[in-house]
Design brief:
Structural class of chain A: alpha/beta
Order of helices and strands of chain B: EHEHEHEHHEHEHEEHEHEEHEEHEHEHE
Distance between the termini of chain A: 29 Å
CATH architecture of chain A: 3-Layer(aba) Sandwich
Radius of gyration of chain B: 21 Å
Order of helices and strands of chain A: HEEHEHHEHEHEHHEEHH
Helix content of chain B: 25-40%
CATH superfamily of the largest domain in chain B: Thiamin diphosphate (ThDP)-binding fold, Pyr/PP domains
CATH topology of the largest domain in chain B: Rossmann fold
Oligomer: heterodimer
Low-confidence stretches of chain A: none
Mean pLDDT of chain B: 96
Number of domains of chain A: 1
Strand order of the largest sheet of chain B: 3-2-4-5-7-6-13
CATH class of the largest domain in chain B: Alpha Beta
Number of helices of chain B: 13
Number of strands of chain B: 16
Chain lengths: 295, 392
């Protein structure tokens, strides 16, 4: 079988990510798919730190660092300016975390997608503010313990369901929306390359497990990523305005099996696990309906 | 003086600014609407839609985004522009630091408007004065002509390799922005020779991939970069003087440099003011001169870099000076007063009274300025609110 993932590397050793960092793999695969004519806009996030301190940098493409809420608007300005210059073949990519996307950067994301700039917006989703020490974000799933939803004596874990930005982008009518994760790199790379052919905004939500914030051993990152898909906690899909394609797990497991290895969920009672399973099933049914609506 | 071609027309300050942006051959505009800035961006959108200007225009979802978009386009080497007012400027605050810290020579117009609550759309300088420490050059205009000319001089100064810092140009809300007066429009050829194309040495380029603004440890270049910004601010002073005088030679209008003095040489009492209040102050001073009073006026054009030497020199012979501030630092004084007092203290200069006037668009009348001169003569000191009662 031919290798579907380009062999070229655009990241160098020596970066400062935690052991087992899923977000680092997400960047590596995205850059392999896009190639060297890529300009990244990265807001405050783990990825603002991972490449290293001045003057070192472990990423071989142009990287513009921006304040937290500036991703969507900065890729809009970059795209327009590069087009004015005649550099229409550059890939302009916002690469932001889930807090920077679902929370503080949402207004700017939504505006950039609405205006229809020819840009990628990639949300690497590690389900919390991990760079600042594992605080809750809108994208943190129901049931998770974080440093701002500590268990304590009142059991104040995150009580609200995950805010899924990709689903919101589908509802907004963004021309290409996909979810992906690092356990399925062929799928991830194929989707990025498919999106590259679209002259318009492209939104990706890439689940990037975080051993530091999810409390599992760092060598398990790819496994946790795979189990997220198999348990349908993180379904993989692709939407291009005409078709909605939802990947079926080939070895389905329950939510209980997915969360078993992650200490952020270890406090949950049977009833609470059942509630999480219900949330997962409800969302899965909504996605099946989308697939029917866009066959 | 060279012979220059120009046409003259009646126009508002906001239209004059838009004409300046067109003459400066700006290629990218991003903005978010706010009263009283709106007629600038409406005019620019109109020019784009009629192909009168070769630029792209995007209306974004907030002022923070407007500044983020022009930050990014300028980093790609494209001359860019935005405009705002009041709360819009405050919402941009974080991005203002980002633009100056990245050494991007943007020019922005600020139509000075009060900050709520309560809501108030009229003129004062609280918005721009609270951006004092963002690393932007600040110019306060007093006429529609100056508002246009400052766009042209602004890009020249900001883009000078010894400066490489952004510049904001202020107009008083409504008094300039929405009031028509005669404005001379310079010819495009003359502007083109005065203001060459932007050539950004470090623009985004895939063949030379760089990291822009990553992070620095305490021992990294962080402090050196900030120090360099300070040095560039001081270096900008001779550049401002040079460009202002070159502009005067080319276009026949001399704005004097960082400040403009009016009858200060032998004056006992001097009022320092900025924006349109300075015009009223000059008018009152001329009248008082006819009555034999030795009064003068200093108009502050540049608040950043602060024209310390100019002000010290202009007021050194006065027995007392007053400073009109259209902003207030609660618990301190007006922003201009704080700076001038500090400059004069080091020079053992005259006592400086802070007159806080025209807040939220409150009229600054002839009688108010006469009262200020009278209070100086009578030996008043401290911080004095003008034409204002107490809250009942």
């Amino acid at each position: 079988m031919a290798l579907s993932i380009p062999a070229e590397e655009y990241m160098d050793p020596g970066h400062t990510a935690c052991h087992g960092c899923g977000a680092t793999l997400a960047m590596r695969y995205v850059l392999k798919a896009l190639g060297p004519k890529t300009v990244l806009s990265v807001p405050a996030s783990c990825w603002a730190v991972i490449p290293g301190a001045m003057p070192s940098r472990t990423v071989r493409v142009t990287m513009v660092y921006t304040p937290f809420a500036a991703t969507g608007a900065s890729i809009s300005g970059l795209r327009e300016a590069l087009d004015i210059r005649g550099d229409t073949d550059y890939n302009v990519v916002g690469f932001a975390g889930d807090g920077g996307t679902a929370d503080i950067g949402f207004q700017s994301l939504s505006g950039a997608m609405e205006r229809g700039h020819n840009v990628f917006y990639i949300m690497y989703d590690n389900e919390g503010y991990m760079n600042t020490g594992v605080q809750r974000s809108g994208s943190t799933p129901f049931g998770a313990e974080t440093t701002t939803t500590p268990i304590g004596s009142r059991r104040t874990f995150k009580r609200e369901p995950k805010k899924v930005v990709a689903d919101m982008m589908v509802a907004q009518g963004v021309p290409y929306v996909a979810t992906a994760t690092i356990a399925y790199p062929e799928d991830l790379v194929r989707k990025v390359k498919a999106a590259q052919k679209i002259d318009g905004p492209k939104f990706f939500q890439i689940l990037s497990p975080c051993p530091t914030g999810w409390y599992y051993p760092p060598e398990k990152t790819v496994e946790v990523s795979r189990l997220a898909v198999q348990s349908r906690m993180f379904p993989l899909y692709e939407y291009n305005m005409k078709h909605f394609r939802l990947s079926r797990p080939n070895k389905p497991i329950t939510v209980r099996e997915y969360i078993a290895g992650q200490d952020r969920f270890s406090h949950l009672t049977e009833q609470e696990i059942a509630s999480l399973q219900d949330l997962v099933d409800e969302r899965w049914n909504r996605l099946l309906q989308l697939e029917k609506d866009f066959p | 003086m060279m012979k220059v071609n120009y046409t003259a027309a009646m126009m508002t300050g906001n239209e004059a600014v838009a004409q300046g942006v067109k003459l400066a051959r700006v290629k990218f505009i991003s903005a978010y609407p706010i009263t009283p800035q709106t007629t600038i961006v409406e005019k620019l959108a109109d020019m784009v839609s009629n192909s009168e200007i070769d630029a792209r225009y995007i209306e974004v979802e907030s002022e923070h985004s407007a500044m983020a978009a022009v930050f990014a386009s300028e980093l790609a080497g494209i001359r860019s522009y935005t405009a705002t007012s009041s709360h819009g400027l405050l919402y941009m605050h974080e991005m203002l630091h980002w633009v100056s810290g990245m050494r991007l020579p943007l020019v922005m117009s600020v139509v000075n408007r009060a900050i709520g609550p309560p809501w108030n759309i009229w003129s004062d300088q609280s918005d721009s004065m609270s951006q004092r420490d963002t690393g932007w050059l600040q110019v306060y205009c007093e006429s529609n002509q100056e508002a246009l000319d400052t766009i042209l001089m602004g890009y020249r100064i900001a883009e000078d390799e010894k400066v490489m810092l952004p510049l904001m140009s202020m107009e008083d809300a409504f008094i300039l922005s929405h009031t028509s007066e005669k404005v001379e429009l310079p010819g495009q050829d003359d502007v083109d020779s005065f203001l060459p194309e932007l050539k950004l040495g470090f623009k985004v380029d895939a063949s030379n991939p760089l990291g822009y603004g990553s992070y620095s440890t305490p021992d990294g270049p962080f402090m050196e970069l900030k120090r360099d910004m300070m040095e560039s601010m001081w270096n900008s002073k001779p550049i401002i003087r040079k460009v202002t005088s070159e502009f005067a030679e080319t276009f026949g209008r001399d704005y004097g440099g960082l400040t403009e003095d009016f009858m200060t040489e032998d004056a006992d009492y001097i009022i320092v003011a900025s924006g349109t209040v300075a015009s009223t102050t000059r008018y009152v001073a001329s009248k008082l001169r006819k009555e034999g009073k030795k009064v003068g006026v200093v108009r502050v054009r540049y608040f950043r870099p602060f024209p310390e030497e100019e002000i010290r020199k202009a007021v050194s012979g006065a027995s007392k000076i007053g400073i009109i501030d259209r902003s207030v630092s609660f618990g301190g004084a007006g922003a201009l007063s704080l700076e001038i007092r500090s400059a004069l203290f080091r020079a053992n200069g005259p006592d400086a009274v802070s007159f806080i006037a025209g807040i939220g668009g409150r009229d600054v009348r002839e009688i108010d300025i006469k009262n200020m001169f009278r209070m100086l003569e009578e030996g008043n000191s401290g911080n004095i609110f003008i034409n204002s009662g107490g809250v009942s």
